Amino acid sequence: MRYFLLFVFMAWYFSFLYAGENKTDTVNIHINNQIYELTISVDSAMDEYGKKPAAAYVKLTKNGREAGKSVFPLSGNCPIEEDIRVEGSDKGFIIRIPYCDGFLFRIGYARFVYSEKYDDFILTGYREENIDRLNTEQESRSVEYSVFSEKPIVWSMFSPETIKRIIRQNLTREHEIAQIRTAQYLVFGYSSKENKLMWIEIPAEFVIQNNSPQRIYVLDSSYYGYAYEARYRFEENPAKEWSKHLLYRIEKDSIGSLIDLDPIFPKESNRYIINSRIFVYKNPEFQKLFEDTVASMFRQHKESRWRVTPSSLSPCQWKSIRQLISGDSLTVWLYSDSLDRRHSVNIPLDAGKRLPTF
Q1: Does the pLDDT of residue 114 top 90, yes or no?
Q2: Judging by beta carbons within 10 Å of its beta carbon (0-12, 13-18, 19+), is residue 290 exposed, middle or buried?
Q3: Which pTM does this prediction carry?
Q4: Which of 42, 34, 40, 87 minimizes the C-alpha distance to 59?
């Protein structure tokens, strides 16, 4: 209820404040006997639901003459995003950029400082204040991001895409993820009722190294391949799809517990495994290729799950399995404690590292 009232109040406040005209904010900066004026104006557009902020226009003038401009598109769905502002700072200015991200209000502060070398204002820092939208009484959290760029980012090049790139670069530097060769064997799933090989359980192992000064957390994962049974079952010609899959920790070379918000401490690494079931019962060529092997295994074991050793399959069969999982990938969701962000990392899987060697 408190969140709803806050949302209504903020939406009413901003619509009242800027109704009938564009919002503008201006700052003057004096450098080397030159007068720079930076102006931000918010433009609105009408849609079926009424008037919504559409874009923020940033214009810089030097001694009264236009020196450049840029545009910040606005979603129109966030109650704080049109409150974009500018303020002066030492030899430069700060652009305040609020936006919504899930249950958070994020307010970015991009600092620009005048550069004699480039005769322009260069981005020197980016900071975000994070506010819980559902618990506004909770203390906000401030996060400082490092600006990585081969070339200086001048203010006219700055945009929401620049912010995303800065954040992505910071997140990428926090960890390393590498697939490693598995020692686990494949498992075949057979149905005596269908008289078919139904699926093959194929493991994938990887290591996550935490390079950040604080903990990161492994949340969950999704797998891309012939592993989404609901779609595989009902489609005539199944294609590879994304599906949620469970991750397990590997501890002392044995499969440990199922993870749920699994922490990785600073400068440490954890090993993980995913056992994805690749469905094959609609693949007639595959069934034909494994027909004799399946019959032999059924005579020996009688149960429906078979652990497969490398020596029990022919090179042709291993090649077929490799082709089946070629192009599969894994997405792992992580949470960065230091950057207060949940993000995903895609891992293209090497088919060779998933199959035991002869």
Answers
A1: yes
A2: buried
A3: 0.81
A4: 40
